[in-house]
Amino acid sequence: MASIENTHQELTRIGREHADNCALLPTDSQLWGLARNIDPARFGVEPDPVDMTSLRDAYDEGRRPTQVGLDVIAAELGRFDVATMILHSSGNCATLYAAPNASWPGRDANEPWTVTLGPCDYVGPGHRHAYIDTAESVSYGPPNDDRHSQTVPYLAQPAEVAALVAAAVNDDLARRQRVGTAIDEATAAFWNQLAAAFPEITTDEVDPAEGMRIEQAMRHTATLWIDDNQPPGGIAATAPPQQGFAQLTPDEIRCALHTLAEIRDDPHAELSEVQDGIADRVVAIWRAENDDIG
Questions:
Q1: Is residue 191 a contact partner of residue 218, using CB atoms and an 8 Å limit?
Q2: Dihedrals φ, ψ of 255, to 5°?
Q3: Where are the chain's structural domains?
Q4: Alpha helix locations (H) across the chain?
Q5: Which residue has the higher pLDDT, 73 or 219?
Q6: Dihedral over alpha carbons 114, 118, 119, 123 (to 10 degrees)
Q7: Contacts of range 24-32, beta carbons closer than 8 Å, 24 or more positions apart
Q8: Farthest CA pair distance, the chain
Q9: pLDDT digit string, tens, across residues 117-148
């Protein structure tokens, strides 16, 4: 019969090995089975609650149970139909990227991910396994946007973390779909108002490529406007009064067209106050039927 200290030391070693492999935490019966494998003479078939406490403490000393592997969270996110990727960011850090498996309005191939989770660290030689430590500060939210990020609850379990990330992904998708609906309505209103301003033009044909570029520019400026003005935590924001398309003069329409033409070839360009004004006009179409953007 081995000493209880030897059993504890071996369980600590096993816990350390499990941590290096980001293995799932063993249940009480599984942990008791590990102890029986080490010292079957001491540990019977049925778990003893008194011994279980010391066995769990010894195992946790090596396992560090607050460390949750990103591969475990990614697997849980798959149950929510969320696509993921784990990328090495810098130093000994990693980031989990998430997005809907399905496409969405205005999806940008250069920015295919909508939610990130981190900071995450690596364990094991050669950056083999990435994990988060739920005893420390871990956040999730839009990429490169700390203002709208949320904090993972202290000691959250993998399923809980995955559910939070999946909810953020779905919220972002719903917001993008709302933007898409608003842009569809704004685009139609834009051309209708333009035609009314120039009755001498009798054709309603628009070059498809030009029409697409204008729609993309509207989508980009409207998305930036919402991102810049929507408060943290998903709280509804009331937009300031804006002038709608129906009240635009022909000169204002020409100005809007000119501005769209300037940014159509560079959708990531810095926006001027005039360009921001276009976003206001786009959102005004939606505001005619909605009281807020929350």
A1: no
A2: -60, -40
A3: 4-63, 69-168, 170-287
A4: 4-20, 28-38, 49-63, 70-78, 158-197, 208-229, 250-263, 273-287
A5: 73
A6: -120
A7: 24/72, 25/63, 25/65, 26/59, 28/52, 28/56, 31/55, 31/56, 31/59
A8: 101
A9: 988 876 555 556 788 888 888 999 988 777 78
- In the block, residue with structure tokens 């709280």: 235
CB 141 within 8 A of CB 116: yes
Cα 77 versus chain centre, distance: 12
What pLDDT, in 10s, does the model give residues 157-175?
889 999 999 999 999 888 8
Separation of alpha carbons 148 and 230, rounded Å: 9
Say how many C-beta atoms besides its own lie within 10 A of residue 76's C-beta: 21
Burial (Cβ within 10 Å: 0-12, 13-18, ≥19) of residue 229: middle
Listed residue (104, 136, 103, 98) closest to 120, CA to CA = 136
Contact by Cβ (8 Å): 115, 168: yes
C-alpha 42/C-alpha 23 separation (Å) is 26
CA 162 to chain centre: 11
Of the two residues 92 and 100, the one the predictor is more confident about is 100
Rounded-to-integer distance, Cα 100 and Cα 78, Å: 10
More confident: 241 or 37:
37
69-168 to CATH, choices 3.30.70, 3.40.50, 1.10.260, 3.10.450: 3.30.70
Joined together, the tokens standing for residue 55 give: 């066995």
Give CA 276 to chain center in angstroms. 25
3-state secondary structure of 90: coil
| Cβ-Cβ contacts under 8 Å for 204 (sequence gap 6 or more) | 191, 195
What is the residue whose two structure tokens read 């988060």?
132
